[in-house]
Amino acid sequence: ECDLGILSAGAVSVPIYPSSTAEECAFILWNAGARVIIVENHDLLARVREVKRDGFILPDVEVPDAEDGTPRPSPGDRVALAIDKIILLEGDPDGDPDVLSFEGLLALGSRVLGQHEPTLRDVRESVEPDDLATIVYTSGTTGPPKGVVQTHRNHLSILEMVAEDTGVFSPGDVDFLFLPLAHSFARLQEFAAIYMGSTTAVARSLDTVLDDLAATRPHVIPAVPRVYEKIYTRIRGQATASPVKQHVFSWAVGVGRAVSKLVQKGEPVPFHLELQRKLAHKLVFSKLHAKLGGNVKYFVSGGAPLSAEVAEFFHAAGLLILEGYGLTETTPALCINRPSKYRFGTVGPAFSQVKLRLAEDGELLAKGPNVAQGYYKRPLATAEAWDQDGWFHTGDIAEISDDGFVRIVDRKKELIITAGGKNI
């Protein structure tokens, strides 16, 4: 509610991972110029109170001149934060005048809405496509995080392309969300569900994911590769518990792979192989489908490279993983495999409004209405990532096949993206 309310009001939202250190939080809050902070619980409230009270030591980072002409701080200076109010979602503010409970926020909003509804409607309708919507911070190889400037147009364009190019989300479907909303992939999922009329089921916690899947029975499950790898490893471990189980499992996977190869080529599955597939599903794969709720049509993978072995196993089990690719700077997608056009080991073709090309050294460059225009208050960093012709330099070395499928083969930058989607 908070994220959508902020955007509807024409304000700018800045998501922060709850795992971020106090220093990381402080830099992001300072760089973004945040005035209102929304925290989930008292632990995070204590972290924000600490940086609000003490400020932080400014790291070695470019600092542009202030618009009001005030002297700009230098690296090593202690910098204060200009925080007006803290909203606490869970718990009581304990009488702190600077802290407002979520219930208090809703009550205040109701009063303001009753008095100024036409004004608020005008504010909402005054939001333009090129207005700043959100600043999403992404880590790099060195130095503090950079805030990617994402506009309303950036988000609307990728939503249009997801709807028109993929057909993954459908009205009435349920998609399952368990990534944190500080992750660009999760924000895309959040907005896509609203845009396309599907329902988002939000996991209560990582510990309750399996129970929540069984209860909500989703049709689409977006996740980072680490999730699929864990499922694959667990299934293989259970299958080797006895020689009989291992034999049946190996047979079922073999049947599934044979069917998968034919389906990928668009060839018919012979009658005898289809009978074996049904038996393999009943004996082995039906258990996996049941644990996932029994309704899954597609998985969507992004945020890090997905192993072709893992993708092929899931397809053998009758579950298609559609791998995509993008970065926070591309809000956050450039390519994706389609249900009717996929190739394991690739990240699929580019979205319809995205332009891709390879630099002389093989680096993938991108343009498109979903590609951000730079980093917030970081002109030097922006000039390093966007060239004079407007091409964004991804830092990834890629190959593009004659029919448009993209394969990421290496990193140009000294940056590792883990299977969980974390930059190191």
Radius of gyration: 24 Å
> How would a textbook summarize the main sheet?
4 strands, mixed
Strand ordering within the main sheet: 10-11-12-13
Distance between the termini: 31 Å
Would you report the number of β strands? 17
Roughly what percent helix? 25-40%
Strand content: 15-25%
Rounded average pLDDT: 93
| Low-confidence regions | none
| CATH architecture group name of the largest domain | 3-Layer(aba) Sandwich
CATH superfamily of the largest domain: ANL, N-terminal domain
Question: What would you call the shape?
Answer: globular
- Based on secondary structure, the structural category is alpha/beta
* CATH topology name of the largest domain: Rossmann fold
CATH class term of the largest domain: Alpha Beta
Describe this structure in words.
The protein has 424 residues and is α/β, with parallel strands linked by helices. It has helices at 2-8, 22-32, 42-54, 102-125, 152-165, 184-196, 209-216, 225-239, 243-265, 271-291, 308-316, 379-385; strands spanning 36-39, 56-57, 78-79, 85-88, 99-101, 132-138, 146-151, 174-177, 199-202, 220-223, 298-301, 320-325, 335-336, 355-358, 363-367, 392-400, 406-411. The chain folds into two domains: 2-126, no CATH class; 158-372 and 392-411, 3-Layer(aba) Sandwich (Rossmann fold). The strands form six sheets. Strands 10-11-12-13 form a four-stranded mixed β-sheet, sandwiched between helices. Strands 14-15-16-17 form a four-stranded antiparallel β-sheet, with no helix packed on it. Strands 1-4-5 form a three-stranded parallel β-sheet. The longest helix has 24 residues, at 102-125. The model has no long low-confidence stretch (mean pLDDT 93).
